[in-house]
């Protein structure tokens, strides 16, 4: 299958590259998401906002810009670019850049394979020269590789391919309607950006691959993996005016938005996980725990969504992305760890307060007793007052040497301050 997949050319071939960048200022681009249909930017944003929940729409469309710019290099044609602000506590200038490409008259899998840096690929990285992210975003954003925790080594890709009548490996049987196993294998190759010989598939994994594949409809399927996602048609594409016009708009629009939200969630969870591990490094953990609790609450109310819309495919794609990156489990661990740390800090603070009250008791009781005795006796001699104070301090010192006194002092010297 490797040779067949590497030579496969579809009627429509497109892929989007998601690149994390830093952008100090808003770009002089049109506001809103990139329109792939007859709508302009504002109408496209309004149409998509009706599909998603208000909270998800605010994240996806509140701070987003697009630029329609055509640039060709070899078999690649740049169609447009998008920028979506996804700031984090460490990187307030963080942005996800979406670069939309079309592949012209050439197989797409070899380009994705070379882009992913597969050592078996003889081809150079196609995103160089005029279509390199650095060149495309020059003067707008800094494309230096992020140093964020667990940052991906390669940008995320979303591929879209519709077959012609010759690519029978992706087509349903015209008589039975059955889908050949090779269709899911090709879909997996496009999503993983690897030929079958690069990562040989174990026979035991075949049922899992079928279970992970999302059948958007009888005509096309989707697969979401850690390093990329792909959409593949299962009926011969007849060209402009075909159903795949609509499918391509969704794949490069609404369904891409679901993956953009998942990528933003992943970045925030990566950062929270790393910061939680450093809570007890240095003084002032109580302040750091309180700050982290605020960040977690803000993330939970702003970004953490598992339900996007009443339309199933977008929800399923987001859940598939979250599952591949174990985001629900990791966020549950963050919540549990933050709660444990908050309880520990509260316990230490309660011990310190109790210790301070104990010190006041140890210091105040002997002194108050001595002064009360002098007052009752009516003794106004300064020497007797000095003697009473000395006796009170001696009693205080003796009390601090007892087991109770040592516990009081130890509680004041607690490790959390």
Model description:
- With 417 residues, this protein is α+β, with helices and mostly antiparallel strands.
- The protein folds into 3 domains: 2-263, no CATH class; 265-343; 348-412, no CATH class.
- 47% of the residues lie in helices and 15% in strands.
- The chain contains 14 helices and 10 strands.
- It has helices spanning 2-7, 41-51, 54-61, 109-115, 133-136, 181-192, 206-212, 244-251, 254-276, 285-302, 312-324, 327-377, 382-400, 403-412, and strands at residues 12-22, 30-31, 64-67, 71-73, 76-85, 94-103, 156-162, 214-217, 220-224, 228-233.
- Strands 1, 2, 3, 4, 5, 6, 7, 8, 9 and 10 form a 10-stranded mixed sheet that branches.
- A hairpin with a 2-residue loop joins strand 8 (214-217) and strand 9.
- Helix 9 (254-276) runs antiparallel to helix 10 (285-302) and helix 12 packs antiparallel against helix 13.
- Keywords: Membrane, Transmembrane, Transmembrane helix.
- The chain crosses the membrane at residues 353-377, 383-404.
Brief synopsis:
This protein has 417 residues and is an alpha+beta fold. Helix content is 47%, strand content 15%.
Keywords for this structure?
417 residues, 10 strands, 47% helix, elongated
Topology:
Layout: H1 2-7, E1 12-22, E2 30-31, H2 41-51, H3 54-61, E3 64-67, E4 71-73, E5 76-85, E6 94-103, H4 109-115, H5 133-136, E7 156-162, H6 181-192, H7 206-212, E8 214-217, E9 220-224, E10 228-233, H8 244-251, H9 254-276, H10 285-302, H11 312-324, H12 327-377, H13 382-400, H14 403-412
Parallel strand pairs: 7-10
Antiparallel strand pairs: 1-6, 1-7, 2-3, 3-5, 4-5, 5-6, 8-9, 9-10
Helix pairs in contact: 2-3, 9-10, 9-11, 9-12, 10-12, 12-13, 12-14
